[in-house]
Design brief:
The chain is 64% helix and 0% strand. It has one domain. The longest helix has 37 residues. With 119 residues, the chain is an all-alpha fold.
Length: 119
Amino acid sequence: MSRDLRPPVDVLHYEIVQEQASALGRMGRTLEQALAQLRAFDDAHALSEAHAHSEIPASMQPARRKLVMEAGQALWMFVVQREATGLRDSRHIMRTYNVPAEVQLCMGFAPAPSKPTSK
């Protein structure tokens, strides 16, 4: 029978750091998925990042805007989680994940609440 002889504070600190790392991983994967969906949309409609706004038909703009906003929200959550762990420089994220400028610009904006339906 083995016993953990570490002080309870060390065990708690280890658990907290482990959960922070796990949360960072989840947030990073969520960001990757959101960016992949946006890129897939652009690829499917032959849009370049630089001209995405002007090239997309008006009927498809809301769908693309939704993807940009979702990626911006995922980016915001990831940046906040990183900063909570002491990693304050987000330039690394922008380069590593190749985050488009339009996603960076909407980072932190909350999606508009849905309108209640009247009966």
